[in-house]
Amino acid sequence: MAAPSRLRGRRLLGREVEREHEPFTIDEDVSHLTRIRSEPCPRTRAAMHRAGRKKRAVSAFEMLSARESGRSGGGGFSQADRAYAAGKHLPAKGPWCVEDMDSEAYVSQFSSDGSLLVAGFRGSRIRVYDVDKGWKVHKNISCRSMRWTVSDIALSPDQRYLAYSSLSPIVHIVNVQSAGRDSDANVTEIHEGLEFCDDDEYSFGIFSVKFSKDGREVVVGNNDSSIYVYDLGANKVSVRIRAHEADVNTVTFADESGNVLYSGSDDNHCKVWDRRCLVREKPAGVLTGHLDGITCIDSRGDGRYLISNCKDQTIKLWDVRKMSSTVEGRPPRLYDWDYRWMSFPSNARYYKHPNDQSLATYRGHSVLRTLIRCYFSPVHSTGQRYIYTGSSDESVYIYDVVTGEVIKKLSWHGSIIRDCTWHPYRPTLVSSSWDGYLARWEASGDNEDPSMLTLDEQRTSPYHQMYGMSFAM
């Protein structure tokens, strides 16, 4: 009796979803906006055409030559000109070693000015590195009340405080600008705990933590299917939203106002929340299109566009103006699998949601075993022309937003790359891997530098003895 039932399910599946055979497409509005911000401005293009050039890619040398000779119409480069020139020099050489740790690297993040790099490792270790002083350790933090690993980290906008979370209902705050290099929780320094649950008999884990742009609030997503906002001035939880029907793996602020939040969940949905008009915990809108759990969301910072990484092995680009007020259609269940230990079904790779609202879909990387992160590339140096992501196939992928192509694939690591971070101003990218390495990729560098990693240093695990099965998060 079981076999016929499964066959009926497969026939129904064929009617619920479509296979996506068409080539990559993108909404014209976001394509045009991205090109404006990442390609030479009209004045520069006009100067090139006056010089008798045919319409083709403009080199950085030609742009400099036109500016110095006065053919560019006077003035310096526009922001788009600078982003175009810098965007041609991607951080794809190397890698060089930033850290060789005896546990998996889970998260990494540059500060907003690029002067600091923060990385969190499995267990109870966080390190802060001074980028301008040869990547020396600025702060060595031993965390408090850890459950399994550091699940997320966030620097305050003034770069004074670091928030870190674990699989517990407490976020801890530590001063990273204090005098001491070593910060042992409640031994050498106080790590203030923000309690998100006052029920001693109930607990949950926090997967995502972010500071608001003004540094006054912290928002978290957890496996209680909820979003919490903590008011640091009042020292209490100010907002709780029962946001999803499954774990909230990722949450972030949409823009500098702090009024709008984006969340992503294992219920397959991205949701938009406007705190100015929360009624009965109803979202401002829902973005439908993914076929499995969301692992990461990154906002473009304009309150309009965002990207999401997903266990369906895709990144999707969204415009909140296209969101619906309710979930569109019944979410199709395409396959029975568990991303923590199974391979993704090959026949499901090009399935498409019948009510897909996304602007574009990016494929090539792999999302298995853990909540792999994705991001827009920096505004200053690339005009956000690219999307980059870690991958369970031990690589970093860099996609062109406009064409959908994989522009670069950075491969050296011997294990999953869960997170990566691009310097806001320099052509530098750091990958954090389960092999225990923090690796630095540059547009150029010294191959004779002793910190350059070699094939002999590759490994699949930072441990002398492998664990049987790592917990996936």
UniProtKB/TrEMBL annotation:
Which family does the record assign?
Answer: Belongs to the WD repeat LEC14B family.
Q: Which residues form a coiled coil?
A: none
GO BP field: proteasome-mediated ubiquitin-dependent protein catabolic process
Give the matching SMART domains: WD40 (SM00320)
**Lipid biosynthesis: present as a keyword of the record?**
no
Provide the alphabetized UniProt keywords: Repeat, WD repeat
Q: WD repeats at which positions?
A: 199-240, 241-274, 287-328
User: What single Pfam family name could you report for this chain, choosing any that match?
Assistant: WD40
Q: What is the lineage of its organism?
A: Eukaryota, Viridiplantae, Streptophyta, Embryophyta, Tracheophyta
Descriptive protein name: Uncharacterized protein
List the GO cellular component terms: Cul4-RING E3 ubiquitin ligase complex
Question: What PROSITE patterns does its record include?
Answer: WD_REPEATS_2, WD_REPEATS_REGION
Record's keyword annotation contains Ribonucleoprotein: no
